[in-house]
Every structure is written in C-alpha cells, then in structure tokens.
Write a structure and sequence with these properties.
Blueprint lengths: L2 E5 L2 E4 L4 E8 L8 E6 L6 E6 L5 E3 L7 E6 L4 E6 L8 E7 L16 E2 L3 E6 L1
Parallel strand pairs: 2-11
Antiparallel strand pairs: 1-3, 3-8, 4-5, 4-9, 5-6, 7-8, 9-10, 9-11
Length: 125
C-alpha cells in the first residue's frame, strides 16, 4: 500500500529553519497533488502548503513568504522548507497525497487519501 514517511522535524528557536521531507513508496509523488498539513494540540488539522503535478502551489496565509514546498521527482520525495519559524508554527506536521494530478481545494483535508505518521516541529521563543 501507499506509504508516506516524514522526517526532518525537531526543536528550533524562533527565527530558525527546518526542512521537512516526505518519502513516498508505491506512490508517484511527481504526478500527484501533495500537501503538508499541521495540527497543534487541541486544534484542527490545517493545510500549510500544496503542490500539484503541474507545479502550482498553494500556501496558507500564515506561512506565505516563509515556507516553500517542493518535490524531488528522482527521489520521489516532497519537501517543506520552513524559514523564519515562529512559536505559533509549533505542531505535528503531516505529509498527504491525493490520487489526482491536481487538487480542487488543495489546503483542505478532504482532498487527501494518503497520510504520513507526522513529524513534530517545536519552535521556542
């Protein structure tokens, strides 16, 4: 079955950077719409960024200009480069994939069929 495995989370101070990776197995990351979501304790899971087959990106307003989503097709891996991190970015981050080349609503959880197990990001002030 499809596997999405995240890595790269950790603890950083405000203003720092992290790069999250999502390695896909039995799934073609290059030809599908994929995204990153996050969930803080007691809060709903929210869309952070998405990237479709054609290179179209979507970002949550709260991360625009700070986060960048990308893919390495040769490695079948999705990335999220996070710069200028803030304490409010603290959450569990999840990689997600759809069966489709593009997403109609790329930052909504209902678009996505496949989910990774998550990687924790903690930003201290």
């Amino acid at each position: 079955q499809v596997q999405l495995v995240e890595s790269g989370g950790g603890s950083v101070q405000a203003g720092g950077s992290l790069r999250l990776s999502c390695a896909a197995s039995r799934y073609s990351a290059s030809s599908r719409c994929m995204g990153w979501f996050r969930q803080a304790p007691g809060k709903e899971r929210q869309g952070v960024a998405a990237l479709d087959r054609h290179g179209s990106t979507s970002y949550a307003d709260s991360v625009k200009g700070r986060f960048t989503i990308s893919k390495d097709n040769a490695k079948n891996t999705l990335y999220l480069q996070m710069n200028s991190l803030k304490p409010e970015d603290t959450a569990m981050y999840y990689c997600a994939g759809t069966p489709f080349a593009r997403c109609d609503d790329p930052l909504h959880t209902s678009e996505y069929n496949y989910w990774g197990q998550g990687t924790q990001v903690t930003v201290s002030s």
